[in-house]
Every structure is written in structure tokens, then in C-alpha cells.
């Protein structure tokens, strides 16, 4: 959240509030979805700490659901930033022709 800020963390790109550039510092240099994987590891850690098999199974389910979510979220995010770049390029061309 420190790197993304409030709008970047809480679905800012879904509402057209885009970052100037992708965040590439830690933890994003390790994984593209650190909050998903951190959440999954948190569930797993609590399950292991308390020794609950059900918690480990729920952690596995969370992992699978996050993985599926990323199959749609990553391309969606890439496309909205690509669209913004295309729109900026068109705007720049429009200003040059005036």
C-alpha cells in the first residue's frame, strides 16, 4: 500500500485513476500481485500455527481463487494502461497537427 497509495490499492485503476507508471519496487519486483500472495501466506501461516488441516485446505482454496482472479485481472490492468498510452499518443498527434 505504501508504493501504490490509497487509490492504487483500492481499485483506482478500475475507476480510471491510473498511476503515472507501474510500480516496480519491492514487493512488485518479486511478484505482480503481492497482496494476493501475502494474504494467501497469511492464511497458511495461521493454519500451520494453529495446526488446523481445514485452515490449510482453505488456504489452498484461496490460492486457487486468487490465481484464477489474476488470469483476468492482469490482462485487464495491462489493457487499461495500454489504452491510456494509446489515448495519450493520439492526443499528442492531435496537438502536433494544430
From TrEMBL:
<comment type="pathway">
    <text>Phospholipid metabolism; phosphatidylcholine biosynthesis.</text>
</comment>
<protein>
    <recommendedName>
        <fullName>phosphatidyl-N-methylethanolamine N-methyltransferase</fullName>
        <ecNumber>2.1.1.71</ecNumber>
    </recommendedName>
</protein>
<keyword id="KW-0444">Lipid biosynthesis</keyword>
<dbReference type="GO" id="GO:0000773">
    <property type="term" value="F:phosphatidyl-N-methylethanolamine N-methyltransferase activity"/>
</dbReference>
<dbReference type="GO" id="GO:0032259">
    <property type="term" value="P:methylation"/>
</dbReference>
<dbReference type="GO" id="GO:0005789">
    <property type="term" value="C:endoplasmic reticulum membrane"/>
</dbReference>
<keyword id="KW-0812">Transmembrane</keyword>
<keyword id="KW-0489">Methyltransferase</keyword>
<comment type="pathway">
    <text>Lipid metabolism.</text>
</comment>
<keyword id="KW-0949">S-adenosyl-L-methionine</keyword>
<dbReference type="Pfam" id="PF04191">
    <property type="entry name" value="PEMT"/>
</dbReference>
<feature type="transmembrane region" description="Helical">
    <location>
        <begin position="43"/>
        <end position="68"/>
    </location>
</feature>
<keyword id="KW-1133">Transmembrane helix</keyword>
<keyword id="KW-0594">Phospholipid biosynthesis</keyword>
<dbReference type="InterPro" id="IPR024960">
    <property type="entry name" value="PEMT/MFAP"/>
</dbReference>
<keyword id="KW-0808">Transferase</keyword>
<keyword id="KW-0443">Lipid metabolism</keyword>
<dbReference type="InterPro" id="IPR007318">
    <property type="entry name" value="Phopholipid_MeTrfase"/>
</dbReference>
<keyword id="KW-1208">Phospholipid metabolism</keyword>
<dbReference type="GO" id="GO:0006656">
    <property type="term" value="P:phosphatidylcholine biosynthetic process"/>
</dbReference>
<keyword id="KW-0256">Endoplasmic reticulum</keyword>
<keyword id="KW-0472">Membrane</keyword>
